[in-house]
């Protein structure tokens, strides 16, 4: 299971997230996506922990918690939608916009 962490400050680091989530268990991976064009953090990230129980406790405890001046949105990550078969530009039919 992977945890989605949203509403992060743009200068957060992997080490910052690692430290917060390590209080709830062993963090096996932290990923902070960056914008392709600007190279800047996008305001969300993903955390993987060593067990589902640890992840569940972290989600329950941290969702809605204030951290670095913002209220975190923490939940189970949804699977990435398959964008294959679409070229760039234009509006996509049948695509879903996920509100986080």
Structural write-up:
The chain is an alpha+beta fold. It contains two helices and six strands. The chain has a four-stranded antiparallel β-sheet with strand order 2-3-1-6, covered by helices on one side. It has a two-stranded antiparallel ribbon with strand order 4-5. Strand 4 and strand 5 form a beta hairpin. It starts with a strand and ends in a 24-residue tail after the last strand.
Number of helices: 2
Distance between the termini: 18 Å
The multimeric state of the shown protein is single chain
Fraction in helix: 10-25%
Q: What labels describe this entry?
A:
100 residues; alpha+beta; four-stranded antiparallel sheet; 2 helices; globular; disordered C terminus
Write a brief caption for the model.
This protein is of the alpha+beta class and 100 residues long. It is built from two helices and six strands.
Helices and strands in order, then pairings?
Blueprint: E1 2-6, H1 14-22, E2 27-31, E3 44-49, H2 52-62, E4 66-67, E5 70-71, E6 73-76
Antiparallel strand pairs: 1-3, 1-6, 2-3, 4-5
